[in-house]
Design a protein that fits this description.
Layout lengths: L8 H8 L3 H13 L3 E5 L2 E4 L1 H11 L5 H23 L19 H23 L5 H16 L6 H15 L2 H17 L3 H18 L2 H17 L3 H14 L7 H17 L2 H17 L3 H18 L2 H17 L3 H17 L3 H17 L3 H17 L3 H15 L4 H17 L3 H18 L2 H14 L2
Antiparallel strand pairs: 1-2
Length: about 475
């Protein structure tokens, strides 16, 4: 009856309509009778044959369906309460007013999600094809917050598609909007950005039609971010400003903060560093004022990049040290990875190429581990720069080529940055003709997209190759 392969006392208590303590005693009795296996300290599972026999008996049990319904409802409530701890600012369909009745701390909530994710995904799959499909989109909507933190974990895209199918069958446009947000971000997390953009544009139209203004603003931000990734800065700016307009009455809202952060990152790409600092500080002030520490960490990391490029190395270093410790404390691999990449660039700027290479290689390994193609390309470019600074033009060229292969026609800022470095590596190896050709490509991409600071660096590389 339980949707997962293993189960604990809380879920068992819900199924049997008893307290967790009473259920724990039942489980211990069954374990002593050799009718269960203890999977981990607090998790149990049936022996295979005994599980099959129990499922056959369940077909004739009149209490079976009410118990299953009770358990699924409990899971929906618990995952909503967990998200109040783990990602309370998440734009979603439902919130929970009594998170403390389920979990005492954020760590407890996150640990529960780690353990119960297979059961939650199983409920989504079952509910999507049932007569009452709402559980499919309700649970998937909450799990989006978990997947945004742990994007390397499998199951997001399949759950979002199941939830969207359920919402389509129910003709529920608000649920459709939530599932388009989820599927769009799931697609984006695996590099399928065009499909992600299509989902987000469709979701934004539905959000406007249903009057869900917060979702419309959030989707406007995400559309802007996707255009930014593609190097379409005019479109990105338009959509990010639309998100700000829609949040004018919510000056301390999460969506306003992420839109300001997005604009700050765009100014970084444009080389307008002081404007970037101002926008990122504005986002940070909102998140610090409202206690959104996870979002504030992202702001501080981006702010450190702007300060580094402005030459404020000590301030950038202090921020990165603080952010890195916080991400490690939260076991946030993506946050740690992006911080290490920026730290490597700071080491390079300070002339410590050996430290830069060591940190960049660590960041690159993490990018591969979490299946992040953009970060894989970006960290490869940083490692290549470190090799070049160490005088190893051959290794640098190999790493730059690795980056360009991934970033080509997908991540223009990363591609142009790598082309600038690749031109320098070729020039260092004595191939001025190839260096000039590579630098011309960088100039073309950076100039077309409006990456002004990068364009100046590309032009400098081009001039150096023609001396």
């Amino acid at each position: 009856m339980h949707p997962g392969d293993d189960f604990g006392a809380e879920g068992t208590g819900v199924l049997l309509a008893m307290s967790a303590a009473e259920a724990d005693r039942v489980l211990e009795d069954l374990l002593e009778a050799n009718m269960l296996m203890q999977y981990t300290r607090d998790r149990y599972r049936f022996h295979d044959l005994l599980g099959l026999y129990a499922r056959r008996l369940l077909a004739d049990d009149a209490e079976g369906e009410p118990a299953r319904s009770r358990l699924c409802t409990w899971y929906a409530d618990a995952v909503t309460a967990a998200m109040e701890w783990v990602y309370p600012q998440l734009v979603r369909l439902d919130t929970h007013a009594e998170r403390d009745t389920f979990f005492a701390t954020e760590a407890d909530a996150l640990a529960w999600l780690d353990v119960e994710l297979p059961a939650l995904l199983a409920i989504v799959r079952h509910a999507a094809g049932s007569a009452d499909p709402a559980l499919a989109w309700r649970i998937t909507d909450q799990l989006r917050g978990y997947f945004l933190i742990h994007r390397q974990v499998d199951g997001w895209l399949a759950a979002a598609e199941a939830g969207l199918d359920a919402a389509d069958r129910a003709s529920d446009d608000v649920a459709r909007t939530a599932m388009l947000i989820s599927r769009g971000q799931a697609l984006s997390s695996v590099g399928r950005d065009e499909e992600a953009l299509s989902d987000c544009l469709a979701g934004e139209q539905l959000a406007v039609a249903t009057g869900w203004t917060t979702a419309a603003a959030y989707l406007s931000h995400h559309i802007g971010w996707l255009y930014l990734e593609q190097g379409k800065l005019t479109d990105a700016e338009e959509w990010l400003h639309r998100a700000l307009e829609l949040t004018e009455d919510d000056q301390l809202g999460h969506v306003r903060a992420v839109a300001l952060n997005g604009l700050g990152v765009m100014r970084l790409c444009q080389g307008e560093l002081r404007d970037a600092v101002e926008l990122l500080n504005a986002a940070l002030e909102i998140n610090e004022a409202t206690g959104r520490e996870t979002s504030a960490l992202a702001n501080r990391g981006n702010l450190a990049s702007a300060l580094r490029q402005l030459g404020a190395e000590a301030r950038a270093s202090a921020l990165l040290t603080e952010v890195l410790a916080a991400y490690r404390n939260r076991s946030n691999l993506r946050g740690e990875m992006s911080t290490l990449d920026e730290l490597s660039q700071l080491h390079l700027q300070r002339g410590n190429a050996a430290a830069a290479l060591e940190v960049a290689r660590r960041a690159h390994d993490m990018a591969i581990a979490v299946h992040d193609r953009k970060a894989t390309a970006q960290t490869a470019a940083t490692a290549a720069q470190a090799y070049l600074a160490l005088g190893d033009a051959t290794a640098a060229a190999q790493w730059f080529e690795h980056c360009i292969t991934i970033a080509h026609n997908a991540y223009p800022f990363v591609e142009a940055r790598a082309l600038v470095g690749f031109a320098a590596a070729r020039l260092s190896a004595g191939d001025s003709a190839s260096a000039s050709c590579t630098a011309e490509q960088a100039v073309a991409i950076a100039g077309f997209c409006g990456f002004r600071l990068l364009e100046r660096r590309a032009l400098a590389a081009l001039h150096a190759s023609r001396r």
